[in-house]
Fold:
Amino acid sequence: MLPTLSYAAASAKAPLAPYRFERRDPRDLDVVIDILYCGVCHSDLHTVRDEWGKGEYPIVPGHEIIGRVTAVGKGVTKFKVGDMAGVGCLVDSCRECASCKEDLEQFCENGFTLTYAGKDRHDGRVTQGGYSSQIVVDEAFTLRISDKLDPAAAAPLLCAGITTYSPLKHWKVGKGSKVGVVGLGGLGHMALKLAHAFGAKVVQFTTSESKREDALRLGADEVVLSNNPEQMKAHAGTFDFILDTVSAKHDLDVYLQMLKRGGTMTLVGVPDKPAELGAGALIFGRRSLAGSLIGGIAETQEMLDFCAEHGIASDIEKINIQDINEAYERMLKSDVKYRFVIDMASLKKEGAAA
Structure:
């Protein structure tokens, strides 16, 4: 077993604190990764505070992991010691169902294995995430990280990046497309960068004039105030695709009316309360409302390679692991542009001092 230092939540109401546990010994197809950076996702906060239910404690969160390979199992062929590698939201799936066979492990019909707060398919142990010194992952769920990418800024690509890339790709966004982005946060800022790189005309919807400058810097061609009826009316019925990244309850109808006939609005945020939806905006225009969830491993690798080629990464604020509880509170206030990333050297220094 591999002794591992981490930060974990002991209960739903406890702050994250130092926690030591043991990773499994590497299996034949496993890669051992020394974690250098781990992004902080809103899902981490939801999970450790048991806002989605059924939390099994202690929980070590983190699924935006970048690090260096320190050991490989005897059957590993894709990685060697010294390689940069990444781990996203999933570390396993059944690999046998129709979805898995189509490289859509995120929709595994027999249940995928989450990077943390999941159950290992082989030994039944609870999986623990990237707020830790190292991780052991099957090479099939480990991702190559180009040396063209800054490793810290690349970490959020493993969740925020693929969450926005996958729907843009699936709904064939490209040159000639007019795309709207709802919400300018960890997901929204990646949506702007990616949609712009895909060649689309990109419009940021926001309720705040103060976000205009940032939206334009990140790739928006135009900014529309969604609380300004005149601005909204001027764009009604003109969008091919809208990506809604907002996780708070909000009015979907106002954005559905922005779509062309046959257009699609896709949700990637998960509000804590059900949305109220009138059928009229869908029926009168044969519009579609859809949802999307991260991406499979092959598509995630494709996204990482695309970002490396186009110089795309997340806008980040690096923090020490000791500041994670404060970062959670700031995240609740949207006080970050646009993703916290933990420099895991701070954890290793703490371990050395202990």
User: Anything to note?
Assistant: The chain has two domains: 2-159+314-353, 162-291.
